[in-house]
Amino acid sequence: MARRSNNPSPRSTFHQDLPFNPTPRSHSIVESIYSQSQYSESSESTAASSIDDAHRILRSLRPGVYVPTVTFFQADTEDLDLETIGKHAVRLAKAGVAGLTTQGSNGEAVHLTHQERKLVTKTTRNALDNAGFHHLPVMVGCGSQSTRETIELCREAMTSGGDYALVLPPSYYKAMYKAESLVEFFEEVADASPIPILIYNYPGAVSGIDIDSDVITKLAQHPNIVGCKLTCGNTGKLGRIASAVDAVTPSEDGSGFMCMGGSADFTLQTLVVGGSGIVCGLGNIAPKACIKVIDLYKTGKLDEAKQLQAVVARGDWAAISGGIVGTKSALQTFYGYGGFARKPLPRPSQQENDKYTSGFKELVELEKSLS
Q1: Quick check: 245 and 259 in contact, CB under 8 A?
Q2: Which residues of the chain have pLDDT under 50?
Q3: Are strands 258-261 and 99-102 parallel, antiparallel or unpaired?
Q4: Are 92 and 283 a contacting pair, CB within 8 Å?
Q5: What secondary structure does DSSP assign to 238-292, as a single string?
Q6: Packing angle between helix 147-159 and helix 114-130, nearest 10 degrees?
């Protein structure tokens, strides 16, 4: 889960005075291109080697809950635990999530080689297909510090079975960027990516870069930019973007542009201001509870939705506070698998495990009651 402050999101730190058309191009139809075949660790067999020879399948993004999946490792070697990665993906699919995301913060993408990143996405796609969830889209985190490598990651995401790329802005040379640098970055990546991209705004992971609503709304006009994920927690910004781009919602098709909140603790708030849903790490622990908040809102049961949102928010604070270490601890305690994060992330003490168990207990009890 993304670590965020309890404080409101500060005034945007990346802004450019850009004229924009408040009615963006329609994003209602986006295609994922890849080929389906038997998974092989040593080949690109689950995906197309090029767009031309790919088998075209439409996996549209739809409003709902998307889960940035955890990457699991063997306890003794820290090698990828592909079996658990696949089983976890299927567990989430069976819970009813709208889609999955690999290579996010919860997936420890920064701890993985390019080959491992491809392997995780391939394993996820293959597990979903084998379990009958061919329709479920997979987003892939593709952020990098250069435009060139970001495009390379987008291409690798496609050949590994990914349907969409979730792209953070680069930040290492933040002090040297001009006002237009990040706009050019996203436009050039979108031009070259073989799969549609979503803008990922997460100031805590990128030296405080916080892309404002005017810039995201401008970028939304690009035909290969089909959504955004806002982990900044700024629901005012989310509402401005959703209105400007006529975002898809659980009840309205709109333009098809996906305007997503980035944490489960403001799911209901996201929906109220016109958002499309949530990409939330808490879904690894309690996917049904996260989905239930949206279902209650869709059916007009706002009082029940508020009560459930409060339980979800308390559980999400345990996830935010504990990060991926706490999330894996909770998975191990409540579901019998999870293991540890890769070094140099620490292994939790017994006292820390007990704290994580206590923090998630209320939410997991609710989750299991929804089974």
Answers
A1: yes
A2: 1-56
A3: unpaired
A4: yes
A5: HHHHHHHHT---SS--TTS-EEEESSGGGHHHHHHTT--EEE-GGGGT-HHHHHH
A6: 30
Q: How far apart are CA 239 and CA 247, in angstroms?
A: 10
Type of residue at 216: I
What is the helix (H) or strand (E) element at residue 219, kind and residue range? helix 213-219
Give pTM, 2 decimals: 0.86
> How do residues 125-148 score in pLDDT, each as one tens digit?
999 999 999 999 999 999 999 999
Q: How is residue 148 written in tokens?
A: 């060139």
Query: CA 344 from chain center: how many Å?
Result: 24
| Residue 259: other Cβ atoms inside 10 A | 33
How many angstroms separate the CA atoms of 96 and 370, rounded? 12
pLDDT digits (tens, 9 = 90+) for 173-183: 989 998 899 99
Query: Hey, which residues are catalytic here?
Result: 229
Cβ–Cβ under 8 Å, residues 202 and 169:
no
Whose CA is closest to 219, among 227, 207, 209? 227
Comparing CA positions, the residue from 201, 140, 207 lying closest to residue 171 is 207
For residues 324 and 2, give the distance between their C-alpha atoms in angstroms, rounded to a whole number.
Answer: 9
Q: How far apart are CA 371 and CA 287, in angstroms?
A: 11
Residue type, 131: A
